[in-house]
Amino acid sequence: MGADFYYTIEVILNGLMAGVLYALVALGFVLIFKASGIFNYAQGVMALFAALTLVGIMEGQVPFSHLINAVFGTQIHDFGWHVPALLAIILTMVVMVGFAWLVQKYIFRHLVGQEPIILFMATIGLAYFLEGVGDLMWGSDIKTLDVGLPQGASLWIEENTAFLGGDDFYGFFIDQLDVVAAMVAAILVAVLVIFSQYTKQGRAMRAVADDHQAALSVGISLNFIWVLVWSLAGFVALVAGIMWGAKSGVQFSLSLIALKALPVLMLGGFTSIPGAIVGGLIIGVGEKLFEYSVGPMIGGATENWFAYVLALLFLVFRPQGLFGEKIIERV
Amino acid sequence: MFYREAGDFKTSYGADNQTFPIKFDRYRYYAVLAIAYLVIPFIINDYWANALFVPFLIYAIAAIGLNILVGYGGQVSLGTGGFMAVGAYAAYKLMTAFPDVSIMIHVILAGGVTAIVGVLFGLPSLRIKGFYLAVATLAAQFFLVWLFNKVPWFYNYSASGQINAPERTVFGVLVTGPNTEAWAKYLICLVFVTAAGIIARNLTRGSVGRKWMAIRDMDIAAEIIGVNPLTAKLSAFAVSSFFIGVSGALFFAVYLGAVEVGEAFGINKSFLVLFMVIIGGLGSIFGSFAGAAFLVLLPVALKIIGVDVLGWPTDIVSHLQLVIVGALIVIFLIAEPHGLAQLWRVAKEKLRLWPFPY
Fold first, then answer.
1. Which of B225, B282, B323, B336 is most worth mutating to test chain A (most A CB atoms within 10 A of its CB)?
2. Low-confidence ranges of chain A (pLDDT < 50)
3. Each residue of A270-295: pLDDT tens digit?
């Protein structure tokens, strides 16, 4: 086998790893969409906000310090302590649960029964709001997030695969962080599946996803379930934020991964957790392969749009996505 | 009392069919036109033209276009920025290729080119709906921006990758380029806005507009009563893209002068115009103007209050602006899903009944 063949495999492997990260974001979308019919555009900004909060807590920053300084003319910046990563993650989770509760109480409870597109617009508004709040709270400069995840290329994989391709092949180049992310994603999915299959709250969540009114009539509190679902989505956002933040720094572009998750969802179907995973993998591999094989011919940077065009073409043939429920329309 | 139909007798079909059948509306319309054409050009200066009036007029055209698609046609699009870029680049290519032809014709042709591109990206709307369509239009947004960045033919192989508007005149008056007078910029945009408003108003109350609305309300039912979804949806995409293309061309040629595609026509522009349509009111031409005015005015007002009056740093004010815009959108959706246009309707009803409560 020539080195080219192995490079192609390496591209596919890296695509799979990137796909796992896309799937991680897409998972948050699916959770909320299934339970409440809300297509949560703010998921990406939630990941950004969670990562910002995590960094802010770890470094002991004073929230809103810029704003306070500007209004009162003070010079405060941080408390001067450092919080260990695990405790900071737990605190961030508390913040995300509080956020879920606020969102439910002040926004979506008032929008029950509105058209889906109105709900979607509301989440776009929410995304803007949250982005502004995140910047005001923690400042808008690029931050590095270090929670002790391994970084850099995995030497072990590189050395042990070097013999495959002959002299001009040096083994597969795979980022350790990607491997960790893939494992975390797998664990996360397993936990979510177990949660929704075997716990009382998980079953209530599925009941709500099935039929709101029927769930209400057997005594399930919709409000509680929606707060729960938003908290879960906040948790998934936190995990995604940690992974992406550790990979490329905590900055505004983090919120754009939400846009990348959209074609993933379209491919996999909005209502399917396995769909989110498979869709993420297809998009990840597809865009890396396309960039590797066709990209150089047409000027590169095809990753910006390839996923959308792929999803668009796919939808023309199968409008409900790979695993989505069949769309039935009646007058 | 002020706003009433009583005593306003129509004696011909023409009078009965006119755009504003109620006297109050008609006189208001004439008054607004008179102020816009006869007063503002004489008092406008560079700051007000660049900060408020020109962007307001240009965004109003884009908002009318998007409102036709989303508010009347019911097809959600997130590709507005991309289509504006098509208008801008089409205008640029036409302006540099045929320097002798009037820029008015170029802008209209740019709209036509955008309409064709819009129909192309509108084709999937025949198969997919709602969210799926909204996300599919993102393909247009990202693909078009990438295309204009990567293919040097579109920016005439210039080294910077930017496009710059050459100087063009209308009736001997400079309207593009850095040396343009404020009133000339304002007037050329105003002419296009007036035309766009009249065309849109009459399209939406005619048979085409009724077909769009039928499709919006329930496409299967519309199909059963004899509306062809193919022509209705694609015509909505074509007309909407035409307006958006015109606004993109003006945005580039008259307002900015020099454009870098990712910066000027990115995804944020799509959302901005969508917000204008939502805050103004879906399915209302007046709402498009109101929404555009509101979102153009808001940052300027915030900047004046925050930076000039309170003396806060600009970055904090710009973050605060995000918070306020986001909160306003959510509040509008909760309190008044039909936008500013609905407030205006309520106000008219109050005027009609005044001084009686009901």
1. B323
2. none
3. 777 778 888 888 888 888 888 877 77
Distance of CA A326 to the CA centre of its chain: 25
Contacts of A132 (CB under 8 A, 6+ apart): B319, B320, B321, B322, B323, B324, B325, B326
Mean pLDDT value across chain A? 78
Do residues B148 and A321 lie in contact, with contact meaning Cβ atoms separated by under 8 Å? no
- Enumerate residues 50 to 69 of chain A having a beta carbon within 8 A of any beta carbon in chain B: 66-67
Q: Are B128 and B288 in contact (CB under 8 A)?
A: no
The sign one gets for the Cα dihedral B41, B43, B46, B49 is negative
Write the pLDDT tens digit of every residue in B83-135: 999 999 999 999 888 888 888 899 999 999 999 999 998 888 887 777 778 87
Please tell me the pTM assigned to this model: 0.86
* Interface membership of A328 toward B (CB under 8 Å): no
CA angle A228, A116, A271 (to 5 degrees): 60
Q: Rounded to whole angstroms, how far apart are CA atoms A94 and A85?
A: 14
**Do B329 and A124 make contact, defined as CB atoms within 8 angstroms?**
yes
Query: In A, which residues are within 8 Å of B329 by CB distance?
Result: 121-122, 124-125, 128
